[in-house]
Amino acid sequence: MHDADQDTTIVMSQLAAVAFDMLADKPLEQISLDDVADAADIDRSYAAICAGTVSALILHHLSMLDNKAMSETYDDLKDAGEVSIREKILEAILHRFEVYNPHKKAVASLAKSALRTPPFGLELLARRVAITRRLLLLCGDNPHGWQGEARIHGVVGVMVASARVWHKDDSPDLSMTMKEIDRRLEQAEDWGYSLGVFGRGASRQKSDAADRADADVAANKEADHD
Fold it and tell me: Containing H/E element for 16?
């Protein structure tokens, strides 16, 4: 039996990949759906049925990249053992940059289009907030209530600020980007503790004490093992 929904999804993904690659050479506003269909060797009328707009294709491809990053991070973290939430968040953000690394020109082009087209920019921001919520849940942080929303937006800020370094980072392991993420996370933590977004009674001193306690437990385990 012919599965029209499956065919549409496949074509949508093909068109989305082509449209996203085209961003490296021209801005979103100058890419037409017919251009994408021709480049993908897909009938223009069918492309219109599957996609509707070029913006929809771009958002579809961004979702595919984000899902790839989340899935791979999940696989990396599920057997990571006793790793702090902060370290997991750093790893998740860094891996997302790794997934996007082959597409730096397209991402830079999208950022400019977002400024020129506010509705599209707001859509990108909403999606970034949504993926950050998923990222925090993946890392063991349940972002509920106003405190959770504040933590989400704090991590969004970390990603936005770190992206400026990522665009210039040519190192094979994105070491500059990792250092910037770490630095920005520390700033966000200081801000979070000062505003109480980590829960009632949370403080930097308590966090440091907990880190020292974890280190002592690890050291004792190592000594017992020896």
Answer: helix 4-22
Rg (CA), the chain: 21
Residue 206 pLDDT: 42
Domain edges within the chain: 62-195
175-186 burial, b if ≥16 CB within 10 A, otherwise e? eebbebbbebbe
What's the pLDDT at 193?
A: 78
Asked whether the beta carbons of 157 and 180 are under 8 A apart, the reply is: no
When the pLDDT of each residue in the chain is averaged and rounded to a whole number, the result is 86
pLDDT in tens, 131-145: 999 999 999 998 888
Give tens-digit pLDDT for 88-125. 999 999 999 999 999 999 999 999 999 999 999 999 99
User: What torsion, rounded to 10 degrees, do the Cα atoms 32, 38, 40, 41 define?
Assistant: 160
Within 30-174, where are the H helices?
33-40, 44-51, 54-77, 85-100, 104-116, 118-138, 145-166
CA-closest candidate to residue 47, choices 26, 17, 23, 21: 17
Nearest CA to 199 among 30, 85, 76, 95?
A: 85
Residue type at 59 in one-letter notation: L
pTM here? 0.82
31's CB contacts (< 8 A; 6+ apart) are 19, 22, 23, 54
Report the distance separating Cα 197 and Cα 184, nearest Å: 16
